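User: Assemble these into one structure.

Assistant: Restating your components, then the assembled model:
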Amino acid sequence: NAGVMQNPRHLVRRRGQEARLRCSPMKGHSHVYWYRQLPEEGLKFMVYLQKENIIDESGMPKERFSAEFPKEGPSILRIQQVVRGDSAAYFCASSPGGLGPYNEQFFGPGTRLTVL
Amino acid sequence: GQQVMQIPQYQHVQEGEDFTTYCNSSTTLSNIQWYKQRPGGHPVFLIQLVKSGEVKKQKRLTFQFGEAKKNSSLHITATQTTDVGTYFCAGEAGRRALTFGSGTRLQVQP
């Protein structure tokens, strides 16, 4: 039973480039969540998606960041024109149902983004 | 917006000592979850509490949800070096996504 998969595990970009982070949820899970974690800090919610729908993007910066979860394929978190402040670990989590009791989130290993 | 505060930020204990971390929400929660993250790793789900006043135990770990469903605690009895990591609480209120606390980093001295 494969867990949540994220790739790449490490990503280095220069300022101004684009970063694409991929997340494949656990089999049978249709709900995906993206979080950002700065070094020595907690997890900050970014966006919550179901297949083809953004349910809650209240934690995502209005500019340069976008997310999608297409009908087929992984969820993608896209950061355009990266800046040094975007350097962080980005975690994806999935759950079988949506919010509510008994829907724990299973986290992927994360993508560590470094912007030079 | 909803805020979840967690204290202490950091705790250093001798192996065998007890450890407690506290979580407080600015709003009433429908449920609270606890996660553990080892250094360099990813968060791993530990438990979920749903009912007011609920207490759950997992071996040396005791989790409690307050009567008002606005606070929670995690207590570890007789810590071991394998308990090292950061413990996060995460609260859910209504239909909003989980809000994570800032975490408590536990160091255990052998």
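Chain A touches chain B through 26 residues (CB under 8 Å).
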